[in-house]
Design brief:
heterotrimer; A mainly alpha; B mainly alpha; C alpha/beta; B: about 75% helix; C: alpha/beta; Rossmann fold; five-stranded parallel beta sheet; five-stranded antiparallel beta sheet
């Protein structure tokens, strides 16, 4: 298993390196950075939903929390290292509390979805109404609808004047995504990850086998929130402003759509779905021929009807169909496995 | 005393509007377990249908109560036949597909009607109660909501059609075995749900400016009300709408309208935590 | 290994999708005018006519031979009423498209979202919208009315017609918050009393509880700086409750997006406002402008206050470019500060060198039959609110928005 993770990690690093190096030749690093951020956000939901079976309708809440935490902390502290860490910790703690409330109450799928939806709405409505001068945390005005602009963006730890932005931010974000992917892969390959998948498959059986289901779900939920928080902090650095729309229902729904379109149950699926759909929306917003919501809506409906599993699994099965004889099929894989040439990883 | 009357009317109005906006979703979700995220857009379409009809010279009440529901019901029928029919049983997929449909409708409405706020005036004027003015249209909405609830109750409890529908809702396979085609029942149910959404949108249209994105404001509240209501259709709807309506208005009057909104949401969280099956999962069990 | 291949496949498909590269803009001798407005979403009633006005102005300048021998090219983005998109497209305009000037922003929130980016990239920024005053920034030029020009005239007029007790209903964001405090100041300066103040988020469209609250406070006058499509419902619901005849109504924003044409006459008659422009201004300049607009777009009904401000802003910038002989930022700013003025559809607009704000005419008006009837004209009002806190010749590096303290 350790071996499998090792090979997996190596493949990941190589592919990531190639992509990170090649794609700026085609798309600007400015756009790529936000695509990476969205990819990370989608991954956070893909982790808890695809592998943990927790449908969270409010992943945007943690995204927004991370972004706002970073902004408020950066204004008060003036240097970016601690705020980045806080942006990961605060959503983690919040999700721990929320998760404990939900999972220890033995709430089923739909109700978890509704509660997370309601929590997002509460946060959104609350932050949206904080435009008055009395809403201040330290030196930072919450700003309500206007959001919080003008905070210290990412800098080299220790020297607040050397900013990491533009291309630098792109490489930083890409590196962060790779690190997160590695951690997620390691987590999934570990016992914790496999038990989480078991919980998704049959919660009662896992509980009867003696595992503390509620605690594990809470922890997984919190980890997803931490990743979303990091994505939020990176977004704050990219956009240089945080607004309440980060908490919005629309944002939450988009994340779900990215995951489903990309392929639930895979790691790369949500990331690809997010990057592709976000880029498509960006391109569509620059033309005025057809309203872009019409196109997005059509794409979604067509996806659900014809590609219900998402892009990545569809592509994979298409690939294996085309090249099945070349030894990518299950039988061939078993043969290779027995020959000790290393495990074939479908995760 | 007058203030009390005003507050009472506002509370009744809040409950009534919650019932109205949730009825369509309740029918579709309660009967078919389909989460119709395009519900808000059906309401928006009902509003636009009313405005178009009124601009053609049709009496505003007929436009609101007859034309809009039928139009939106037919649109819902088309949606059901084309898309939803293939996705029964797949909860997540229906969510996604109806979200796509909602985006589609928003885009189409924007392309056809443009984004500028259109509207029609409220057909009923306000009148004084002591020192205060009350919006007369609120009474109309309260009336419509009451008639709706009563009508749904009568149909479901006392007619044969309602019996068949309830049977299909509880055990689709048994109804099929007894000779009732589930797909026909679902088609009819979706038509009714869409028509109810259209009615709600039409009735609310004179009060709020209608833009293609108006639907989004309703879907969350409707969703929460329906889920908190629980499995019983009417008693669930009435009880959750009642609870949330009172909570939100009490806070809105004592603190601020924003506090009212947030109070509604917090009440929902608390309720779902305490009663995960919804209100009628615990109380009023077995009622329609 | 399959993993490797799949990741590679993912990578190549991403590259293939990225083949939809943005078309390169026509290179060569044009001056690039950047525009960043909400032409869709709930603020599109403001944005669309502003966009039309900008394009009309650019067309007129190009027809007259362009600027400095070059034609103007418009690079415009639609921010879809989303504040976060403002930052995104702002960065795009300045860092990618490298425009020579930006005319844009509608809500004050959107202005603040891009103002710092404009400063950092040293792109001259023109904010052509009425707002709450106080911005002190050498890189920006603002030609919309500010509270000292608008509110200071409107409040005593409205109070004179109704009474001393005032209730304020404002949109809950920086413009609404700050303007509400200005209204408070002018009400007390005129011997009145603010009996209530409520802030409503921009997406609220149900005002039942609010209207009941207002009635409880029993004011003589309600002043409502409400903003956007959702807030328009307040005026409908107010009329529906029969309040029109009981309590007077004034606003610092209603009509800026031609809302008086969307409301019916019964809903709108008698509402008091004060702006720099009205379609019903009877001047030859306005008639001429409306004629040119109708020729270009077919119908002059879409013209509103900030569309005209945008039009005048573009022409002011063009005038400064001619005077400076270059679009370069430093020379442009000096030219703007040298006493530039143009004659637009709303009268004479001059630039105040110390604050980069505008000196212009303000008309007090009332809604009547879906028109804005001019009651009184105050000529060439100075932006004294910003002048009292901002002096860019003394502090050229100032970069603050000063807020009134009560």
């Amino acid at each position: 298993m350790q071996n499998r993770f090792g090979r997996d990690a190596f493949a990941l690093l190589v592919t990531a390196g190639v992509l990170v190096w090649l794609t700026p030749l085609v798309i600007s690093t400015y756009t790529l950075t936000v695509l990476i951020v969205y990819g990370m956000l989608a991954l956070s939901l893909g982790l808890i939903w695809g592998y943990g079976g927790i449908l969270c309708f409010g992943q945007a809440a943690f995204f927004g929390l991370g972004a706002y935490t970073y902004a408020i902390a950066a204004i008060n502290i003036g240097e970016s290292t601690l705020p980045m860490l806080l942006a990961i910790v605060v959503p983690f703690v919040f999700a721990m509390m929320l998760g404990a409330m939900m999972f220890y109450g033995r709430l089923g799928d739909v109700y978890v979805g509704v509660i997370t939806l309601v929590v997002t709405l509460i946060l959104f409505r609350f932050i949206n109404s904080t435009a008055g001068p009395q809403f201040v945390l330290g030196k930072a005005r919450l700003g309500g609808f206007n959001g919080i602009p003008g905070f210290q963006t990412l800098n080299v730890p220790g020297s607040p004047d050397s900013y990491i932005w533009g291309d630098g931010l792109y490489y930083f974000a890409a590196a962060a995504l790779v690190v997160v992917l590695l951690l997620v892969s390691w987590l999934l390959a570990s016992p914790f990850g496999r038990i989480a998948v078991g919980i998704r498959e049959n919660e009662t059986r896992m509980a009867l086998m003696g595992y503390d289901v509620s605690a594990r779900k809470t922890l997984l939920f919190a980890l997803g929130a931490a990743i979303a928080g990091l994505a939020g902090a990176l977004f704050a650095n990219w956009a240089e402003i945080v607004t309440p729309s980060l908490f919005s229902l629309g944002q939450s729904a988009e994340i779900i759509i990215w995951c489903i379109a990309g392929g639930l149950g895979t790691r790369s699926g949500p990331i690809i779905g997010a990057a592709a759909l976000a880029y498509l929306k960006f391109l569509l917003g620059q033309q005025t021929l057809v309203d872009n919501t019409v196109i997005m809506g059509l794409i979604l409906v067509l996806f659900v009807l014809f590609l219900p599993k998402g892009i990545v699994p569809a592509v994979v099965s298409g690939w294996t169909m085309l090249f099945g004889r070349r030894g990518a099929g299950k039988a061939a894989a078993l043969r290779r496995n027995r020959a000790g040439r290393g495990a074939v990883n479908h995760g | 005393m007058d203030l009390f009357a005003v507050i009472l009317v506002e509370i009744l109005y809040s409950i009534a509007s919650l019932i109205l906006i949730s009825a369509g979703l309740a029918v579709v979700f309660g009967m078919m377990k389909v989460i119709n995220l395009a519900h808000g857009e059906f309401m928006m379409l009902g509003g636009y249908a009313t405005i178009v009809a009124v601009n053609q010279g049709i009496n505003v009440f007929i436009a609101m109560l007859v034309i809009a529901p039928i139009t939106v019901g037919l649109i819902g029928l088309v949606v059901e036949r084309l898309v939803i029919r293939h996705l029964y049983g797949r909860l997540v997929d229906t969510m996604l597909a109806t979200w796509g449909i909602s985006l589609l409708f928003i885009g189409l409405a924007t392309m056809i009607f443009g984004n500028t706020t259109t509207g029609i005036s409220t057909p009923i004027s306000g009148f004084p109660v002591g020192a205060y003015q009350i919006n007369g249209y609120n009474f109309f909405i309260i009336l419509v909501a009451m008639v709706l609830v009563l009508g749904l109750y009568i149909v479901l409890k006392l007619t044969r059609l309602g019996l068949i529908a309830r049977g299909a809702m509880q055990r689709a396979d048994m109804s099929a075995a007894l000779g009732y085609s589930p797909s026909r029942i679902y088609m009819a149910t979706f038509f009714c749900g869409a028509a109810l959404s259209g009615l709600a949108g039409a009735v609310l249209a004179p009060l709020v400016g209608l833009v293609p994105t108006s639907g989004g404001a309703y879907i969350a509240k409707a969703f929460i009300t329906v889920i908190a209501g629980g499995p019983s259709l009417i008693s669930g709807l009435a009880s959750s709408a009642g609870l949330f309506g009172v909570t939100s208005q009490v806070f809105a009057f004592s603190i601020s309208p924003m506090a009212g909104e947030i109070a509604l949401l917090v009440a929902a969280v608390v309720l779902l935590r305490l009663m995960p099956q919804g209100i009628t999962g615990r109380f009023f069990k077995g009622k329609v | 290994m399959i993993v490797n291949r799949r990741q590679l496949l993912a990578g190549t498909s991403a590259l293939a999708a990225a083949g939809l590269v943005r078309p390169a803009f026509a290179a060569g001798d044009t001056i690039k005018v950047g525009s960043i407005l909400d032409t869709s979403g709930i603020f599109d009633a403001y944005g669309k006519p502003m966009d039309m006005a900008l394009r009309l102005a650019v067309k007129e300048i190009n027809a007259a031979g362009g600027l400095l021998g070059k034609q103007l090219e418009v690079i415009a983005y639609d921010t879809q009423s989303d504040m976060a998109l403002y930052t995104q497209y702002g960065q795009q305009l300045t860092r990618q498209d490298k425009v020579d000037v930006v005319h844009g922003g509608i809500l004050s929130a959107s202005r603040e979202a891009i103002r710092q980016t404009m400063r950092k990239t040293r792109t001259p920024y023109f904010y052509n919208v009425l707002y709450e005053g106080g911005v002190c920034d050498r890189n920006i030029f603002i030609n919309g009315v500010t509270p000292a020009q608008q509110v200071e005239a409107l409040v005593p007029y409205a109070m004179g017609k109704s009474g001393k007790k005032v209730y304020i209903l404002a949109a809950d964001y920086n413009y609404g918050q700050i303007t509400a405090r200005w209204i408070q100041k002018f009400v007390t300066d005129n011997g009145g009393e603010v009996v209530g103040m409520d802030f409503l988020p921009l997406d609220v469209s149900d005002f039942g509880a609010t209207i009941a609250k207002v009635q409880t406070a029993a004011p003589d006058l309600v002043i409502a700086p409400l903003v956007g499509g959702a807030h328009l419902s307040f005026f409908r619901q107010w009329a529906a409750a029969g309040m029109k005849d009981k309590i007077a109504l004034a606003s610092t924003t209603l009509g800026v997006g031609n809302e008086h044409k969307v409301l019916t006459a019964e809903e709108g008659d008698g509402i008091m406002v004060a702006y720099n422009y009205s379609q019903d201004l009877e001047t030859p300049a306005n008639a001429d402008f409306k004629g040119r607009w109708a020729e270009e777009y077919g119908d002059a009904n879409a013209i509103h206050e900030i569309a005209v401000s945008n039009y005048q802003g573009v022409h002011t910038w063009a005038e400064a470019v001619r005077k400076a002989g270059t679009t370069e930022r430093g020379a442009l700013i000096e030219a703007m500060e040298s006493g530039i003025a143009i004659d637009g559809p709303s009268g004479r607009i001059a630039v105040d060198p110390n604050t980069h704000h505008a000196v212009l005419d303000v008309h007090i008006m009332e809604f009547e039959n879906q028109k804005m009837k001019v009651i009184e004209t105050l000529t060439q009002r100075q932006p004294i609110d910003t002048q009292s806190v901002c002096d860019l010749s003394a502090n050229p590096d100032d970069n603050t928005q000063y807020e009134i303290q009560i």
